[in-house]
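Here is the promised in-class demo. Please do not try to memorize the tokens; focus on the logic of going from shape to residues.
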């Protein structure tokens, strides 16, 4: 439930001596239908939503006045749909950066992006390898139609919150080293630990829809 998640965010912020206003909740609405999103999220006064698949997201665009976040992998041939996103959390290659920049230039639009980092170094993971992060970061500095606004990561599937902490600490250290702003980390199973480690954006799906 949204209200319960908001309470837990508040409590985690209190423990960490942080202002809850500094933690943005992205309610992840993937796999949920419009009626349910309306009832459980929007009617409760929350308008910040995250989706991970372009096609599914586009079927929900009839929802109005939403701040949309793309949290899943983005294929270059789908960039043309992405103007409505407030933030794209999944930049993971120079080729995707180029494509976004090119389309942004054409449309006179600046894409706000986070680099997704594979902090756990798993071979099958989407994000960029830690040792390639600085290269991608530097590369993006020259792209006028991208605004690099922080980093995103996911803890490995199945890790408990305390195990996840190490990956969140790692992302924070990388963010600090690069002098970036946002840290998008923490999901239903581990958002409290992520807040304790400095998350400025959390992406919570199942817990807000329960
Ligand atoms: C699905 C998803 C979430 C939310 O996961 P929950 O465990 O349901 O909170 C967060 N981030 C990404 C990238 C996701 O794909």
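The designed amino acids, position by position:
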């Amino acid at each position: 439930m949204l209200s319960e998640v908001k309470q837990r965010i508040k409590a985690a912020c209190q423990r960490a001596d942080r202002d809850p206003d500094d933690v943005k909740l992205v309610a992840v609405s993937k796999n949920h239908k419009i009626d349910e999103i309306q009832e459980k999220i929007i009617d409760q006064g929350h308008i910040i939503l995250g989706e991970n698949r372009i096609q599914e997201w586009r079927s929900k665009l009839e929802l109005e006045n939403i701040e949309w976040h793309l949290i899943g992998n983005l294929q270059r041939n789908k960039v043309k749909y992405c103007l409505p996103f407030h933030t794209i959390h999944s930049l993971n290659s120079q080729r995707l950066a180029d494509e976004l920049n090119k389309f942004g230039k054409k449309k006179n639009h600046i894409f706000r992006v986070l680099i997704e980092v594979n902090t756990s170094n798993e071979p099958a993971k989407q994000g960029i390898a830690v040792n390639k992060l600085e290269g991608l970061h530097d590369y993006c500095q020259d792209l006028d139609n991208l605004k690099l606004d922080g980093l995103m990561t996911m803890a490995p599937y199945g890790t408990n919150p305390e195990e996840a902490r190490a990956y969140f600490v790692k992302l924070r250290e990388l963010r600090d080293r690069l002098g970036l702003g946002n840290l998008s980390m923490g999901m239903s199973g581990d958002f409290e630990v992520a807040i304790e480690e400095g998350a400025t954006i959390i992406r919570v799906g199942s817990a807000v829809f329960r």
